[in-house]
Amino acid sequence: MTRLKRLLGTELPVVLILAFALLPWIWMMLSSVRPDAELTHSPIALWPHQLTLIHHIELLQRTSFAQNLRDSLIVACGAVTLGLTLALPAAYAFSRFRFRGRNWLRTQFLVINMFPVVMLILPLFVLMRDFGLLDTYFALIAGHATFTLPFAIWLLTSYVDGIPQELDQAAMIDGATRVQAMLLVVLPLAMPGVVAVGIYLFITSWNEYLFALMMTGRNVRTVTVALQLFIGENQIQWGLLMAGGTLVALPATILFLFAQRRLVGGLTGGAVKG
Amino acid sequence: MLAPALAAAAILVLLPVIDTLWLSLHDVILYRPRVRPFIGLGNYTRALADPVFWESLTNSLVWVICAVSLQFTLGFATALLLNRNFAWRGIARALVVVPWALPSVIIGLIWTWMLDFNLGVLNNIGVLLGILPHSVPWLAQSSTAMAGVILAVVWQGFPFFAVTLLAGLQAIPGELYEAASIDGAGAWGKFRHITLPGLAGVIATALLLRMIWVANSLDLILVMTGGGPGTATQTLPLHAFLTAWSGGNYGQGSALAVLLTLLLLGVVVSYVWRNRAE
Fold first, then answer.
1. How far is CA B55 from CA B176, B235, B261, in A?
2. pLDDT at B198 over 50
């Protein structure tokens, strides 16, 4: 009886919620491997009769998508590098030093994240334009830092907080400088946290659309913008779009599942503490 | 050590914010870069006199209230279910966050594809099951477009609540429930007197955070409808963005961005205040 109750009261609803969460994803993947004849037939059949990789092949051979993937990869890696380079020392300082205005500054970094993106993106566009930086990797990498940096610092600070201060003090008694203590003692211990933050930076940059739309053009074009541009052409080629969507979504999803436990702990930490 | 991050924040955030304020007081048309006359609050009075502003504000309210309440309800139910004991709980907890990891553009594409009038699978299923009398052009008609984009954002955002609230549930000590059982409390009593009070702080913070995000977000709507048909799904941030981006009117767009920020200030302040109090 309790078994039946658990099945109907818990497991069945969970199955329904998971179906809601996963079926759209699965439908995208499924649509990407069906021939056009099936995708343009209304009403669309729920079950595919024929599977094909033609959309994936066409996407990579006939369009600039491979290049867009490369651009996205460069920007995301740049965002990770820039983000970690700036966030690690800042997190270390927030964690180790007690200085006037420390709490105030930490709060300011939190407030930054609350600013409407339009508030930042319009002047940044004008700024980058005036400096002739539009359509470069740098513009987009810097743009992404505006909204990833606060969270990266916030997350990393909590990881560094978890490493005992005595360790860096011991290292400094043995003759290490502050920077050495940070890089040689704290960094290796904080590695799981650094990796999680790195993955957060990567996914956020990889997924980002609005900055990419404004800051890039002919030379640099990331996948999110490229995908959207496929729609603009008079007839929507859903097979191509879904193939592109799958190729873009896959790395983000895998990375997210991989780092999920740490990320979710950190992402919700701010919300859960209260 | 803080210096590099502070400098970056100053250049990339503080400067733009000041710049937005400056732009909003000037008549800045992008393709007329030489002339940028100061017009005081002209952009603001023009924005407030424009009926589109009020339509966008109304749309924003509908968007935020519907999206956040639905995300919360579904996320809370998910969290309660995933907090129970069953064999494959671990896998379920991992998989439920999948929508959250996807780019907004792709979420927009998936739902546009599924809601398509001719080829959309949702219309197909709806008609098959007899829920819909006939195919509905969800995103192409004003009366249903908002529902379509809200459906997509609920899908995107409910895992956030599920995960946050689940973590909050796990922090409630199990002894409380045991003690309540001994005292003869039923399931509803336990929920009402232990779960809800124990979660209140987490719920409030998560709701505030999510409201700010949803109110600011515009990429999903931009991809799915571009604010249309007409202005049916044009929210305030989208209005600001389109005014500047498609209209080339950066002064006006900046003024709208500042107005949005001012409107959100109350929510942001209460979030920061909660965070500091902790």
1. 49, 8, 17
2. yes
How many other CB atoms sit within 10 Å of the CB of residue B21?
A: 16
Are A227 and A182 in contact by the 8 Å Cβ rule? The answer is no
Q: pTM for the full model?
A: 0.89
Burial zone of B99 (CB within 10 Å; 0-12 exposed, 13-18 middle, 19+ buried): buried
Is B176 in CB contact (< 8 Å) with chain A? no
**Could you please report the per-residue DSSP string of B130-168?**
TSSSS---GGGSHHHHHHHHHHHHHHHHHHHHHHHHHHH
Q: From the list B168, B260, B278, which residue is nearest A118 (CB)?
A: B260
Tell me the residues of chain B between 32 and 91 that have a Cβ less than 8 Å away from chain A. Answer: 74, 77-78, 81-82, 84, 86
For residues B114 and B170, the answer to whether their CB atoms sit within 8 Å is no
The CA-atom distances, in angstroms, between B97 and each of A67, A212, A224, B36, B202 are: 29, 25, 21, 47, 18
Q: Chain A: nearest CA to B268, how far in angstroms?
A: 7
User: How far B174 CA sits from the closest chain A CA (Å)?
Assistant: 18
How many residues make up chain A in this entry? Answer: 274
Kindly list the residues from chain A whose CB atom is less than 8 angstroms away from the CB atom of residue B106. 28, 224, 227, 245, 248-249
Tokens of residue B110, six digits:
């998936």
Distance from CA of A264 to the nearest CA of B (A): 7
Confidence tier at A266 by pLDDT (50, 70, 90)? low
SS3 A156: helix
ipTM: 0.89
A6: Cβ–Cβ under 8 A, 6 or more apart, which residues?
B84, B86
- The answer to whether A206 contacts B103, with C-beta atoms less than 8 Å apart, is yes
Q: Distance between alpha carbon B116 and the CA centroid of its chain, in Å?
A: 23
